[in-house]
Amino acid sequence: MKNLPQHQSESDVHALCSTDDIEQAASRSRIRLVRRPGTIAGKLPWNDVRNGKLWRHGTQLILVLMNVYICTTFYFWVRFYETGGATAYVSRPAGIEGWLPIAGLMNLKYTLETWNIPPIHAASMLLLLAFLLMALLLKKAFCSWLCPVGTLSEMLGKLGKKLFGQTFFPPRWLDIPLRSLKYLLLGFFLYLVVPMPIEAIQAFLMSPYGLIADVKMLNFFRFIGETTLISVIVLAFGSLFIQNLWCRYLCPYGALLGLFSLLSPFKIRRNPESCIDCGKCAKACPSRIPVDRLIQVRTVECTACMSCVESCPAKDTLVFSIAKPTGAPGQTRTRGVSGMVVALLLTLILGGTIGYAKYAGHWETNLPEQFYYRLIPGSQMLSHP
Prior knowledge:
iron-sulfur cluster binding, membrane, transmembrane helix, iron, 385 residues, metal-binding
């Protein structure tokens, strides 16, 4: 690399180093490099509307703020009934149902067998269906675009990289069996729910525990046990070293979405005719997928985060699309969807589901107030039926 003037910033140095790497890769591959318009060292500026990361991070921020509002509001709603009406009243946020995946799974089975949507926690089922639809269409975009736990895990990974200068990767012989853990957890929950008779599901949902399952979920975090607290601390600390530790190895929700994502028509696809084999896409992938060696990414680990697409310096070479891109450099005939389109599609699916639920009367779980006055103060004493 050429000598740099003293006034150049560190970011300028990194940009020039990256530019040299790209030029060298293009020279080795003997493929003419046609750069993506507007890129500097192969990347778009962070505030460019064409940058998929801008849309993803913006969507993540909005969802985190929404969930903070939902959880805070729900806490004060619970406190109103715990204190016998002595505190300020706020309406129950129906979005809390998104934190009840097991209730959603039970309601889904009940609905499929009876063709009736249950009146209790119906929104949990509808939100589950929305997330499954996202996976069917857009891979595991829910995990990297909407899930607040996924966002927190991602932030911890970035913090760890800043603190320790690198991200640690378990060896392949350990990584593969660890990834199977989330499928074992998913299998455990499916084993509990799928064989349940409809009468048992109905009895559970109508039991005192089932009626305030959302309150029990809140209490799980409010009155967290020592073992659970240690587990959370270990996971958080481990996420500083291993990126997306919870998501990659233990999340059963992500495992379920991953299986549905295998049917997604949209995939990350690479045009080998214009690829310069720089390897930047594989280095950028948080799921450690060897994107640079694949024509299309089929794996259940892909979360459609677009990190690989945004790292590619070659125009229309790596895309998130239905059809494989083909054509000589600069003449690719298939264009992928942008981050803005992904954000729009996710918004339409989520917003459409909520809109339907409100219109059909399935968004709110409204019990008579005397139920809440009686059940919530003693919720800690309620055991699983």
